[in-house]
Amino acid sequence: MKAGSALLLSSLSAAIVALALTATSVVAADKVDPAADAKAFQTFFFQKFPTVKHEDFVNGPYSLNEDMKRQWLEKEEFPPYEFALDAGKEMFATPFKNGKTYADCFPNGGLGIRQNYPYFDTKEGKVVTLELALNRCREANGETPYSYVKDEMASLTAYMAFTSRGKPMDIKIPDDPRALEAFENGKRYFYTRRGQLNFSCASCHVQSPGQRIRAEVLAPALGILNAMPIYRSEWSGMGTISRRFITCNSQTRAVPLEPQSDEYRDVEYFLSYVANGLPISGPGARP
To answer: Residue 170 belongs to what H/E stretch?
Structure first.
């Protein structure tokens, strides 16, 4: 976070606190009822931005700003993530040293399944993300795991997301109190303020989507993971969901967690579930 951004964020904080008192009462609930939470979450954004087509929320800031959307559509003719798609496709098809491939680890050969991740593993009792499942596949086949934040992992997930483009997010919460607890933990993490700036994820992506922090237009939380992984001009490359969470923590001057920590996996579970029904749009591109 640059000093100028910090000053601007501070100036927004008073307004955000006031908004939070009303907005969080709409999208947060005391009782663990994921279906009701998802309905309230989506209704909040649909009413806040009534002119935005529901399926467009997966395009982040481009859904809220006509000038940015026009530039983005022009850029999509030669998308900056194309190199990652090509690399991911080749990596996905390349056999491990034992002759097996990623396709051996996933249902449907790993194609067209992005909309079902993350899922709650009732045997393990925890949320399993696509990034985690890919590294577990590698380790099970004698390969070293990849970094969770960029490069190879971003390319692999970019290719798998591309094979699911247009499919509606379809996250399940099984009849298991541990799954409800994971959902609730993710929701709590999303709304909890932290860091020197005392911001929560919701401070920017529920109370302030469409507003600018310097040149950046804040994306709505609804559908924010449907576009992952993403190419960001700010990063000069691709980044994963893990990288996005770590960056958000750093921008609020909080201490980032380890990639694939229980907290990050739970908040990914929460954000993905409340986006159920919206299409996968990844890989995406952002300023």
So the answer is: none
Give the dihedral sign, CA 209/211/212/216.
positive
Give the pair of three-digit tokens for residue 287: 């300023």
Known catalytic residues are 248
What angle, 0 to 180 degrees and rounded to 10, lies between the N-to-C axes of helices 177-191 and 34-48?
30
- Burial letters 248-263, b for 16+ CB under 10 A, else e: bbebbebebbebbeeb
Separation of CA 154 from chain center: 13
CA distance from start to end of the chain: 15
Tokens for 79?
């998308």
The residues, ordered by sequence, that sit 6+ positions from 88 with a Cβ below 8 Å of its Cβ are 155, 156, 157, 158, 159, 160, 162
Reduced to 3 states (helix: H, G, I; strand: E, B; else coil), residue 119 is strand
- Taking the CA of residue 167 as centre, how many other CA atoms within 13 Å lie in the half-sphere pointing to its CB? 16
C-alpha radius of gyration, the chain, whole number = 18
Picking from 214, 215, 244, 216, the residue whose alpha carbon sits closest to that of residue 229 is: 244
For the chain, helix, strand, coil in percent to 5 are 50, 10, 40
Identify the residue whose tokens are 């008192």: 21
Count CB neighbours of 196 within 10 A: 10
pLDDT (tens, 9 = 90+) of the chain, 287 residues, equals 444 444 444 444 444 444 444 444 444 446 789 999 999 999 999 999 999 999 999 999 999 988 888 888 888 889 999 999 999 999 999 999 999 999 999 999 999 999 999 999 999 999 999 999 999 999 999 999 999 997 999 999 999 999 999 999 999 999 999 999 999 999 999 999 999 999 999 999 999 999 987 777 899 999 999 999 999 988 889 999 999 999 999 989 999 999 999 999 999 999 999 999 999 999 999 88
